[in-house]
Design brief:
Oligomer: single chain
CATH architecture of the largest domain: 3-Layer(aba) Sandwich
Shape: elongated
Number of helices: 8
CATH class of the largest domain: Alpha Beta
Strand order of the largest sheet: 7-6-5-8-9
Structural class: alpha/beta
CATH superfamily of the largest domain: NAD(P)-binding Rossmann-like Domain
Strand content: 15-25%
């Protein structure tokens, strides 16, 4: 591999950005492309699919063969709130391939006994996210019902372009949240990116069912995201 392409891939990896090493198999030429970059005719759809799926593949177009070597950052799921839904969500997220972390300043909830295999931050979201910024390959789910804990990370997730942003609560609760986020400077369009009530509409009632609905919506948002903005819809 050309040293320049290797450096480009390493830079994308460090910055948690998506990249594909596109190789023309007949000529041996290769280059690193990012979502939205211009590409050879006939491979656009395949490249878009590869960026969404994360699967490397061989593509043939107009008698030419290309290999797409896909490099996507591992998706993260940042959960605000060490609550019952989070307990059910943790093993599901691990099975689905998501690196899940939990932030909750309430030390009575954020304990190793309740979450033995999850990275916990028993701190305020403001402190954690300053040291560990959100990005386009992170999903954020706010589950505490407490504006003092949820509002800041929700705003940061929208501004960071997280592919998924969701918040637990009734429509009435969310209406009040909308007014607070407007007051913080977010536009109606930005606030509209927040999935609230959180999760796919499957009639979920128990914490485990809500966790299923949330994870399903997160996966949908990742796979259906707009490649130019990085934002997923995840709508049912």
């Amino acid at each position: 591999m050309d040293i320049g392409n290797l450096k480009a891939l390493n830079a994308a990896r460090r910055a948690r950005r998506a990249a594909i090493l596109l190789t023309d198999l007949a000529e041996g030429r290769e280059r690193v492309i990012a979502p939205g970059d211009p590409v050879e005719e006939g491979v656009t759809a395949a490249i878009e699919d590869a960026f969404r799926s994360g699967k490397s593949r061989l593509v043939e177009a107009d008698g030419r063969r290309f290999f797409l070597n896909v490099h996507l950052p591992p998706p993260r799921l940042m959960v605000i709130g060490a609550v019952h839904v989070s307990q059910a969500l943790a093993p599901m997220a691990k099975i689905a391939g998501y690196d899940m972390e939990i932030i909750d300043p309430r030390t009575a909830f954020a304990t190793g006994e309740r979450f033995p295999d999850v990275r916990l931050h028993a701190e305020w979201p403001e402190d954690v996210l300053k040291a560990q910024p959100l990005d386009a390959f992170t999903a954020l789910a706010a589950l505490t019902h407490d504006p003092k804990i949820d509002d800041y990370p929700l705003r940061e997730a929208v501004l960071a372009g997280c592919f998924y942003v969701g918040a637990l609560g009734s429509r009435r609760t969310h209406a009040a949240r909308v007014e607070r986020l407007k007051a913080s400077g977010l536009s109606d369009e930005q606030i509209g990116r927040i999935h609230a009530p959180i999760g796919l509409d499957i009639g979920a009632a128990s914490p485990a069912e809500i966790a299923v609905a949330v994870l399903g919506q997160v996966i949908s948002a990742l796979r259906k995201r707009d490649l130019k903005t990085g934002v997923g819809s995840g709508r049912a």
